[in-house]
Amino acid sequence: MAEALVALGGNLGNVRDTIDRAVAVFCEGQRVRLLARSSDYRTNPWGVEDQPPFVNACIAVETRLSPRALLAHAQAVERALGRERSKERRWGPRQIDIDLIAYDDVALEDPDLTLPHPQLFTRAFVLVPLTEIAPERLIAGRRVRDALAQLDTSGVEKLAARG
User: Fold this and answer.
1) Which of 20, 21, 99, 145 is catalytic?
2) Per-10-residue mean pLDDT for the chain, 163 residues long?
3) End-to-end CA distance of the chain
4) Which of 51, 76, 102, 157 would staple 5 via disulfide (CB 3.0–4.6 Å)?
């Protein structure tokens, strides 16, 4: 079994409900099992700034799937929840986005999948929730909490837990 770190986010519709559904479908039990889930965070848009704020979260999972199979699973969950990547603008609004951040200590560079995620250490909206669930995790030789300490976290706001 491998351990993977996964980021989820979106800014269209009821994003918190969509993230909850995405986590439930993604972590169906046999092939992917949820180990930890961060709080939800409201974050400023990244890349294309003229759009609604995002809600982001991270999960740690245990999986029997290979990195490429896990990516295919993530994209199938996105499609099941209404995402149509072909109709979206890069970094634009979306209902749900599921990104593989790290998979054990695998380093991979393929056209469709790079691990660890190539922009992980520049994105506070990923590192803040990731630090909540895996502060001591080493990714590409860097401790998650140490990487976060190098970033401006303004614009990343922890949302209240829902009852």
Assistant:
1) 99
2) 96 94 92 97 84 95 97 94 71 84 95 93 96 97 97 95 79
3) 33
4) 102
Catalytic residue check, 83: yes
17 catalytic, yes or no? no
- Is residue 146 among the annotated active site residues? no
CA distance 40 to 159: 6
Q: Is the pTM of this model over 0.70?
A: yes
Candidates 37, 27, 40; CA nearest to 70 is 27
Q: For 7, phi and psi rounded to 5 degrees?
A: -105, 140
Active site residue 94: yes
Cα distances from 111 to residues 41, 50, 77, 115, 126, in angstroms, run 30, 28, 21, 11, 22
φ, ψ of residue 96 in degrees (nearest 5): -155, 140
Class of domain 2-158: alpha beta
H-helix or E-strand containing 115? Answer: strand 114-115
